[in-house]
């Protein structure tokens, strides 16, 4: 039985939803809905941490982007009243929710050809998102993200070593003038293989909840970080394929290449920030998360 009122949701969107399945639990609950042979995804935004202006920018980005051949994005769907979002009752309170089109396709695999395709699509996405105003409401400032992570972890017992490692990483990133003024623009914010699908030669991008304006390396570093932390035995080969694909659309500068290892570490810092601000880990899980982060931040990352 669904914990979402499908009748109310059907009236809200003018679609006869016949089924509802939870596909992503946790902070941003996401459901797969079916209506008339079509699939949709409904996201319940977390109760705190996303302002109305930030949500509006995400939806504006997805409505205004004009994807070139080779990429697609999951578009948001307005209510019958023309509103960007709906109010959906969950757990006794109303949550802000948005309905998205479904992008069908196969997963992006840990294969060099797929990773090169993903990298090329990411460069196209950056180009397609460029010029859409409003990113100031969602700044992805690397130094500010490091400082926020340290502040959020103050509430987590045993996080002292991780906080010191974050501070050292921040000093390394901003101690060299080269990483400043890197190419920047609107970013996906959580660009990795699980947030994309492939259909033919087209890569469809999903889940722009963490989108914002910042260095493009933030997206590239996130994709590379996922390969590193999953202990993918071919991480080096796959990262090389990712970069080769990306550079078919935009060549990386020498400054970006030097800074990329720091942005792999920044992805780890952002993961800790998310956990500290929005998730409550069981006491036994925090030491593991902190140890992993500390180990990655204190070692040399080579790309």
TrEMBL record:
InterPro entries in UniProt: Aminoglycoside_PTrfase, Kinase-like_dom_sf, Pseudomonas-type_ThrB
Protein name: Homoserine kinase
Lineage: Bacteria, Pseudomonadati, Pseudomonadota, Alphaproteobacteria, Hyphomicrobiales
Listed Pfam families: APH (PF01636)
Gene expressing this chain: thrB_3
Domain Aminoglycoside phosphotransferase: 28-250
Species whose genome carries this gene: Methylobacterium isbiliense
Record keyword Transferase present: yes
Keywords: Kinase, Transferase
The family this protein is said to belong to: Belongs to the pseudomonas-type ThrB family.
């Amino acid at each position: 039985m669904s914990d979402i009122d499908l009748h109310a949701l059907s009236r809200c969107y003018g679609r006869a939803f016949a089924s509802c399945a939870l596909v992503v639990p946790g902070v941003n609950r996401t459901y797969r809905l079916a209506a008339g042979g079509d699939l949709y995804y409904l996201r319940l935004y977390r109760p705190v941490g996303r302002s109305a202006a930030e949500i509006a920018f995400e939806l504006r980005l997805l409505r205004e982007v004009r994807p070139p051949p080779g990429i697609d994005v999951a578009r948001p769907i307005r209510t019958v009243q023309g509103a960007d979002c709906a109010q959906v009752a969950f757990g006794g309170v109303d949550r802000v929710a948005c309905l998205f089109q479904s992008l069908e396709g196969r997963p992006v695999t840990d294969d060099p050809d797929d990773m090169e395709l993903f990298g090329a699509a990411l460069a196209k996405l950056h180009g397609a998102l460029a010029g859409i105003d409003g990113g100031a409401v969602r700044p992805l400032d690397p130094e500010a993200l490091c400082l926020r992570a340290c502040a959020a972890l103050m509430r987590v017992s045993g996080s002292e070593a991780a906080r010191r490692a974050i501070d050292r990483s921040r000093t390394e990133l901003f101690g060299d003038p080269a990483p400043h003024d890197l190419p920047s623009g609107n970013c996906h914010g959580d660009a990795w293989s699980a947030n994309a699908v492939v259909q033919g030669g087209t890569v469809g991008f999903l889940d722009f909840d963490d989108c914002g304006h910042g260095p493009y390396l933030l997206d590239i570093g996130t994709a590379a970080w996922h390969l590193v932390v999953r202990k993918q035995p071919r991480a080096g080969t796959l990262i090389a394929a990712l970069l080769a694909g990306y550079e078919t659309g935009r060549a990386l500068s020498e400054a970006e290449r030097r800074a990329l290892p720091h942005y792999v570490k920044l992805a780890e810092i952002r993961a800790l920030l998310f956990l500290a601000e929005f998730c409550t880990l069981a006491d036994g899980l925090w030491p593991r998360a902190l140890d992993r982060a500390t180990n990655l931040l204190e070692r040399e990352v080579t790309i």
